[in-house]
Amino acid sequence: MSRAADRFRRFLLPGLAFKAVIIGGGYATGREIAQFFLPSGPWGGLAAMALAMAIWSIVAAATFRLAHAMGARDYRHFFEALLGRGWVLFEITYAVFIVLILAVFGAAAGAIAAATLGVPPLLGTLALMFAIVACVAFGNRGVERVFLWVSILLYATYAVFFVLILSGTGQGIANAFRHAPAPSGNWASGGVIYAGYNIIGAVIVLPVTRHFRKGRDAVIAGLLAGPLAMIPALIFFLAMTAFMPGIADAVLPSDYMLTRLGHPAFHILFQFMIFTALLESGTGAVHAVNERIARTGAVLGPWLRASTALAVLAPCMLIADRVGLVTLIASGYSALAWALIALYVVPLLLVVVLRRRPAAPLEIAQ
Q1: Which domains does the chain have, with CATH numbers?
Q2: pTM here?
């Protein structure tokens, strides 16, 4: 392996995987940004995003460092060490998280298919479901390739999007910030809630932290994870400020903006990028379930991995056919955020502050 490839896997891959888990559903479509940041206005939204990014970096660095020290490569063993018998509570919370985010991903894929191709939403949901099954069937290496290539497509597309936004609505963005008041109100609450339910991504991506050589690698990768995950969201938020207040109620803010900008060919490319973002997010979430099963000693070949993925995806994504994207995000994420902060972030930071290392379970001790 070349030195560049080794450094990529140690320092950047975990952050790209973290971004992959976060960006799906409402982030890629802009729906989460409209829900948690736009109500605070341009400056308040920026402050909330900076707060969320700082929380991600700190918690991801602490998570990767602790997991590396314990030899934990899946969420169950990490929480067995962190919470003791209380790990079961996290397992239940994670099950709720999986149902919610996969339903959101399915709803988003259906909305994209309907808006772009004019087909029934269920077809978009099914296309995403079977694409995720195909990706997770090949284990860690297949999933890591998905993270790499989708990330390249995603960052390149967002770069072009930002150029088009500046050329088409740059003055609108400038006016939005020029006339907006300083941050006030509940901007911090939006940042904490958004960071809270998304920070679970740091545990979901533990399988890709197998490339760390020492604790320093884990800390650097964790600190980079926050900016890597937030940069596309920042670009999206800046663009959305030019379309306030009408964009706040759009089911697909991305489609709302692209329709008004013109550029039909790029509109289709952007929607395809969103679909691939949903794909990598769903792949990361379901792969974590497969790895949790594999770490119990079960041998998971491609067919068994695919079958497990389908068993998880089908009931969750069928919910998407009955509940809309906006409803799912508005009703489920806030409660989930506070549960994850209580079960994960607070115990983790107490361990860091008290400088106590949880004892690793025997089956994963190094």
Answers
A1: 7-354 (1.20.1740.10)
A2: 0.84
End-to-end CA gap in the chain: 25
Residue 232: what residue type? P
pLDDT reported for residue 294: 80
What is residue 220's predicted lDDT score, i.e. its pLDDT? 96
CB of 143 closer than 8 Å to CB of 335: no
Low-confidence ranges of the chain (pLDDT < 70): 1, 25-26, 184-185, 295-299, 320-332, 355-366
Q: How far apart are CA 87 and CA 100, in angstroms?
A: 20
Distance from C-alpha of 343 to C-alpha of 199, rounded to nearest angstrom: 12
The token duo for 188 is 């911090």
DSSP code per residue over 90-126: HHHHHHHHHHHHHHHHHHHHHHHHHHHH---HHHHHH
Whole-Å CA distances, 230 to 26, 62, 237, 259, 298: 14, 18, 10, 24, 36
| b/e sequence 30-39, b meaning 16+ C-beta within 10 Å | bbbbbbbbbb
**By C-alpha distance, which of 89, 98, 114, 94 is closest to 29?**
114
CA distances for 254 relative to 144, 236, 351, angstroms: 27, 8, 40
Q: What is the mean pLDDT of the chain?
A: 86
Rounded distance between C-alpha atoms, residue 222 and residue 98, angstroms: 23
Judged by DSSP in three states, 205 sits in coil
Nearest one of 45, 344, 342 to 188, comparing CA atoms = 45
Give me the torsion for CA of 59, 62, 64, 69, rounded to 10°: -160
